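For practice. Any example?
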Amino acid sequence: MVTGAGVSAASGVPTFRSADGLWSNFRVEELATAEAFSRNPRLVWEWYEWRRNRIAACEPNRAHEVLAAWSRHYPKFTLVTQNVDGLHERAGTRNVVRFHASIWELSCWRSCGASPGRWRDDTTPLPAIPPPCPHCGGLARPGVVWFGEAIDPAVLEESLAALDCDVCLVVGTSAVVYPAAGLADEARRRGAYTIEINPEATDATPRFDLAIAGRAEEVLDEIERALGG
């Protein structure tokens, strides 16, 4: 199972590729990079603070609930999510692999030796923008994976292991950002039957064994009812 921003859209979390994915006339590609943070850490943190406050007011939707139920019912269920909002975990989903880490984690911008790498901070609003590293006093950065940064090797290993499956559903993702966009192709290469669930066709749609057009919360609910859940 691979999920993207479309799973959280019904909860009110803006998707990057939609009209409301704009923030102060900036797009995600202009803000979610180390270069952008180096130029203007306050601007980047203002965007992340806006997102954190939006997400804090959101609740898991029916798509999250169905996936959480599947994670409890199917012992080999693994969910690889590109989302950083934490709504899968709030819904009670087990075996979640956070491909791009979490918006609720911070790390030291200079990777000081005193910091543990990433640490969790659910505070909203944050008391200072940009927030300091509590370990060295320098700048803290969002603990998410930015464009141009490598996926944590342990996370990548977990994600690839999850692709050794019978069925791989890819839900609510635009299939634009690699390496996440290549996970379904790898699953099919390993023998899985691949299914895309998305309101609109993507560049990857022709490569799936089955494509279902629709919103994540509606389609997953229909599948759950068909399964007798």
The domain at 2-103+144-226 is CATH 3.40.50.1220 (Rossmann fold). The chain has one domain: 2-103+144-226. The two ends are 18 Å apart (CA to CA).
